Write a sequence for this structure.
């Protein structure tokens, strides 16, 4: 685990900015790859708690300060115990699925502004958000896990089929490939993909608009949509258990090791074209 | 409440035409804005009962005779008691949600032909219909309610996520903006958007086609689709309750009053560009 | 019932090819129309059992060797008893719905490569598969049954609304018309439609890719998606019962008889443009 993942420097990876009391930004800023480790989970837990309890905030936008990466896969250089040793959250789920489930239920509208890769954790936090808008040219969404023998842990098996139907969800998950802006829009993986030059202004205008509305009306409406559409927590819990069980299997350990040898976890081609690289592991 | 909303002239606002015993048209004709009040609810109740009990009708198309408006929001000039005082329907739901739920279950195929604005009630009756086809150039769909501090009352929190997924449903409901033909088609808000010049012929051909099929096969098939896809009534009831609770809150009353001062409920820019206007209320 | 439908020549209609131990092809090859009868159901039962029990297979692609037809409607020239007399399968469902339900749950990834007509049974096996890819120019999907007074028997009332929403599902089922590649993609009836020249290479690359992944990770992920998205068996059973009840009704018998007189079940225009022909029956 890298040093900046410790509590002492816990605000290093994720930056919370209050553009207005009603409109916050949460910016993933962990260069060079925006990899997501236990330290970031602790930071996210604090942010979620703030979103749940603040009286004024109505909208939060998730974005990235790292070129090429919205938010990336988990940190595979740390110890697994640093992840599994995190305390369970108030939902009873383990830390990462707890954060995602709470975000979907939080009394605030969450919008993922996706530029660069949203791989693994990045895709999962986008899916747990209320809306997703992507850069047509620069967004890449990816549930890459099956490609290295893993099961995704943050709930995409529960969320993707409810968003895009079973067939496209299975393609995303079992194909484990990079999904670009046009296809993400066609499949409903994101609300819309916009020209990169228009994305920031579009999301900012939507966030500002919603932040001008009545908070009570927003919350009551969101809660009713949640009742109609959120997966039950037990499905999220089952995905997390399957994920943990998969990590320790030799099939996964060997593939991750091979991928590491080919440049995974370092800036370069393996991270940039992860979909291609996982497709080469079994040959 | 306007005079034409009284029972004595109750057939003024909605016109039922039997193109054939098997194929009916229900035309919203309440110029200049096709606003929807308690009088129209009573008319719709009679029409729904006729659709439920007629032995011959197989298809009903909903359309509009009012330029620019398929069917509009509720009548805010009347007394709230005229709406809440309407008797509950046979489903146990209040009058408006009762109509919508019965339409979705009726032993007849309902098709919304959307040209002009389908705002509030107009969007809700379209969503309760079995299919929706929109004019690419002239249709505007809108659940505008959150923009004035209200919660929609006719079930879109239950129906939209099942039609387009949670993320796009939340955008439609919490963005409270005007949705035009192309986006409505992309999101699955409507089955398809067609060039305005082709819309009437397309819907008429489809309605005529279905009306030529066996009624029993139509009903049995629709009932099985309903079992797979309709929201439970309790979700519709919860939305209606939340709507009624929202109307009397100061946040909503003040926003509606401001909107009235800016031209709401009168022909003109505020009605034509309602999405823009509700976005200006909070500034 | 044609002779080749008997057990003695049971491998005539469906060909199983092992491209690799991990990657199988199942090819519908029953010229000239790829009509699907009780003999083919028996063959499919054996194939499903093989897919369920083989330790190595990870991916199966369904395709066709018959020009113009991926897989067609049921054989209406045989005796109904040959269909209804087939033993129930291990799910407790009758043979055809049993096959479809087992395919969706099988520990293998199924991909339908759709070129030509996928009518009735052909559409149903595509919908029971995990993914569907269609030729943009040459694929035609069709649940034609309501057009002749029948109810589809293989579960599309349960599957289509979960894939494309209630409105589009009702259009497909109650319109009973031919759906071509572009519309099938827009509606999510298929994952994607591809230029016919690219379809084979695309599906082969995806199948080869998935076949290179870890089988356990594939299965666990698919099972979790299934938990989130598969219809309950009782809905499939209800559709099958409704189908059987519809076949013996005079409305269906008369329409099928008329359609036979117009060329149904023979190579030619009635089969090629079935959507058009069923639309003419009621006039």
């Amino acid at each position: 685990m890298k040093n900046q993942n410790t509590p002492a420097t816990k605000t290093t990876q994720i930056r919370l900015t209050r553009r207005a009391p009603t409109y916050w930004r949460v910016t993933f800023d962990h260069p060079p790859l925006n990899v997501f480790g236990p330290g970031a989970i602790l930071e996210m837990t604090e942010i979620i708690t703030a979103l749940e309890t603040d009286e004024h905030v109505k909208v939060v936008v998730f974005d990235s300060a790292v070129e090429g990466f919205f938010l990336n896969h988990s940190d595979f250089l740390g110890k697994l115990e640093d992840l599994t040793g995190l305390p369970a959250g108030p939902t009873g789920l383990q830390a990462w699925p707890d954060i995602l489930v709470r975000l979907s239920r939080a009394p605030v509208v969450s919008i993922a502004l996706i530029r660069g890769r949203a791989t693994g954790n990045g895709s999962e936090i986008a899916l747990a958000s209320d809306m997703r808008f992507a850069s047509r040219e620069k967004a890449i969404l990816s549930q890459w896990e099956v490609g290295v023998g893993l099961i995704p842990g943050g709930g995409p098996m529960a969320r993707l089929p409810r968003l895009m139907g079973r067939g496209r969800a299975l393609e995303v998950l079992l194909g484990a490939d990079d999904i670009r802006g046009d296809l993400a829009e066609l499949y409903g993986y994101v609300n819309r993909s916009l020209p990169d030059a228009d994305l920031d202004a579009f999301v900012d205008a939507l966030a500002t608009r919603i932040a001008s509305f009545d908070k009570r009306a927003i919350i009551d409406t969101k809660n009713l949509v949640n009742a109609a559409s959120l997966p039950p927590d037990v499905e999220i819990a089952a995905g997390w258990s399957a994920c943990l069980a998969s990590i320790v299997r030799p099939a996964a350990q060997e593939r991750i090791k091979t991928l590491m040898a080919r440049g995974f976890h370092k800036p370069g081609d393996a991270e940039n074209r992860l979909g291609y690289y996982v497709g080469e592991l079994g040959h």
About this structure: Chain A touches chain C through 40 residues (CB under 8 Å). The beta strands of chain A are 14-20, 23-28, 59-64, 69-71, 109-119, 131-142, 179-180, 192-194. The first strand of chain A starts at residue 14 and ends at 20. Residues 1-10 of chain A have pLDDT under 50 and may be disordered.
